[in-house]
Every structure is written in C-alpha cells, then in structure tokens.
C-alpha cells in the first residue's frame, strides 16, 4: 500500500513553511513525506539536486528553501543569488530529468509596489531590492529548463515557527507598553499553515484526481489587505495583549532594502483554476493565535 502513496520531498524543512508541512503530514495518509534541511540537501549545488532526486525518487518536490533575510541580501548578493536564483534552476533541471513535479515558493517582492490595485501574474515585474531580484531570477531559472512546475508567489508569510513578524510582535508586545509600526506598506499577511495545507490539496487535485490545473505561476495569499500596523494590531487583539500599536510612516524606520509600498497579490487565477477557497487574513491570525 505504501508504494502507491505519492512521494513528497520537502526542501528547507527547518523553515516556517517546511515545519507546517511536517505538522500536516499525518492528515495526508495518501502521501509519503521526506524532509530535508540545507545540511541534508543544499539546492544551490547542481550535483546535490541530481543525487538526492535520483536516490529518493520523489513524485513531487516542494521547494521551501530560500535566502529570506531581505536586509542582509543587500550586501550578500552572492549568497542570495546562490540559493534564490541558481538553486531553483538546478532543482528544476533535476526534477525535469526525473519527471518530478516542482512546486516552488516565491514572493510579492518581485513587484515594485507602485500599483494601487492587486498585482496579477501577468503584471510587469520590477523588484526594488536584491532579495526580490534574486527570487525573480529563480522563477526565470525554473522556467528556462522546465514547464512542469507551480511557482507560488505569496506575501508576508508568518507562523508560530521560525523568524517572522508575528513572533516578533508577540515578543515586543510582552516587553513594551506601546509600539510604532509602519502603515504605508500594504499587502496580505499569509498564514504558513493555510498555505501548506492548500499546497498539499493542490498536489492531490492535480496528480491524484487529475484536475486540469495548468502549470505556471500562481498568486496565493489570504483575502483582504492591511498594513504592517493593522497586522500588528490584529495580532495584539487576538492574543489579548494590551500593548498599544501606533501608525508611523516607513521613513521613520529607514532600512537598507527598499520595500514595495503596495504589493497585494491578485488571487483570481488560483480561485479559477485551483478552486480551493482562500481564507481571510484575520482568519489566519486567529488560527495562528489558537495554535500552540
């Protein structure tokens, strides 16, 4: 019976999305999961990708491995490029050789944020920081070698695991009476557990139920939009933390890496082809708050 199960390999398993996928695994008994950290599987090395896929023969590879330090990437361009640009291309080539489906996670930061309406998959890309450039080049590296992939762009990913805004707000909320948080950057916070669950449902729909879901780039976030300030206020409310959160402009918190002012992603393509209902961003904050 086990041989009939789909073999799912997850790279970047120590990250927040990788950990959520591990947590969900028992709920997907028709799938057999294997998890790999950077120590186990360094996607930036072409020969490692070929060896791991040839050895373990996954049906699907979910690549959550990434260089995610937006600030550090401004100085460490080589490091970001190695993992975010070259790595996905090497992985895609190995997947094509073996016939494995590649699901790769990308970002809203491929856009410059100058629009005031949600970005679709067809909108022009124009990253304004090195992290965004490295992720865009990773998308292009995948597309250059295979057409059997799903690139999932998401935004403001958070969970109870790893390093993220949600956990930072919880920590600061326990330490301070008030916080100043920027309110001139707008997108949709995305709960990693919701994304992980829906990625596994996508695999089930495409491979096991043979639904005609076209390959390509998809935008996935929770519904609705907010600022970092609004996000922080909701985190405090859900977790019953009394810390006051006041809105400030981003110029009061200068950073080395520029951030897009508006990077809400349009999810109509996901809704049309995948047809898995997306939940609201406040529902994600509530679900994360209820988790332990």
Structure notes:
With 292 residues, this protein is α/β, with parallel strands linked by helices. It has a single domain (2-163, 190-223, 264-279), classed as NAD(P)-binding Rossmann-like Domain (Rossmann fold). The chain has helices at 16-24, 46-56, 70-73, 77-98, 130-145, 165-175, 192-208, 228-238, 268-274, 281-290; strands at residues 6-11, 31-36, 60-63, 101-107, 149-154, 157-158, 178-182, 186-187, 190-191, 216-219, 226-227, 244-248. The strands form four sheets. The protein has a six-stranded parallel beta sheet, sandwiched between helices. The chain has a two-stranded parallel sheet with strand order 6-9.
Q: Give the oligomer, counting copies of the same chain as homo and different chains as hetero.
A: single chain
* Count of separate structural domains: 1
CATH topology: Rossmann fold
Proportion of β residues?
Answer: 15-25%
Fraction of residues in helices? 40-55%
According to CATH, the homologous superfamily is NAD(P)-binding Rossmann-like Domain
Which blocks of ≥5 consecutive residues have pLDDT under 50?
none
The level 1 CATH classification is Alpha Beta
Q: What structural class is derived from the secondary structure elements? A: alpha/beta
Main sheet: strands, sense, barrel:
6 strands, parallel
**Distance N to C terminus:** 33 Å
Mean pLDDT, to the nearest integer, reads 96
Order of helices and strands: EHEHEHHEHEEHEEEHEEHEHH
Radius of gyration: 19 Å
From the spread of the alpha carbons, the general shape counts as globular
For the record, the CATH architecture stands as 3-Layer(aba) Sandwich
Would you report the number of β strands? 12
């Amino acid at each position: 019976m086990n041989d009939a199960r789909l073999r799912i390999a997850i790279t970047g398993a120590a990250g927040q999305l990788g950990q959520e996928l591990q947590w969900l695994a028992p709920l997907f008994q028709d799938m057999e999961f294997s998890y790999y950290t950077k120590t186990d599987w360094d996607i930036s090395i072409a020969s490692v990708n070929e060896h791991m896929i040839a050895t373990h023969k996954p049906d699907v590879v979910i690549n959550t491995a990434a260089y995610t330090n937006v600030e550090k990437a401004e100085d460490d361009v080589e490091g970001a490029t190695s993992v975010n640009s070259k790595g996905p291309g090497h992985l895609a080539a190995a997947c094509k050789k073996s016939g494995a489906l590649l699901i790769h996670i990308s970002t809203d930061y491929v856009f410059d944020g100058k629009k005031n309406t949600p970005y679709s998959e067809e909108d022009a890309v124009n990253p304004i920081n090195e992290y965004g450039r490295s992720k865009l080049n990773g998308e292009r590296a995948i597309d250059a070698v295979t057409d059997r992939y799903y690139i999932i762009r998401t935004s403001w990913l958070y969970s109870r695991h790893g390093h993220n805004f949600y956990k930072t707000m919880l920590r600061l909320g326990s330490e301070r009476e008030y916080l100043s948080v920027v309110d001139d950057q707008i997108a949709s916070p995305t709960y990693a557990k919701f994304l992980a669950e829906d990625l596994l449902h996508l695999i089930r729909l495409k491979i096991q139920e043979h639904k005609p879901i076209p390959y390509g780039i998809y935008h996935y976030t929770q519904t609705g939009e907010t600022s970092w300030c609004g996000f922080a206020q909701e985190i405090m409310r859900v977790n019953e933390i009394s810390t006051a959160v006041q809105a400030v402009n981003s110029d009061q918190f200068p950073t080395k890496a520029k951030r897009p002012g508006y990077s809400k992603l349009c999810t109509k393509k996901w809704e049309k082809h995948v047809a898995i209902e997306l939940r609201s961003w406040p529902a994600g904050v509530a679900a994360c708050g209820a988790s332990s």
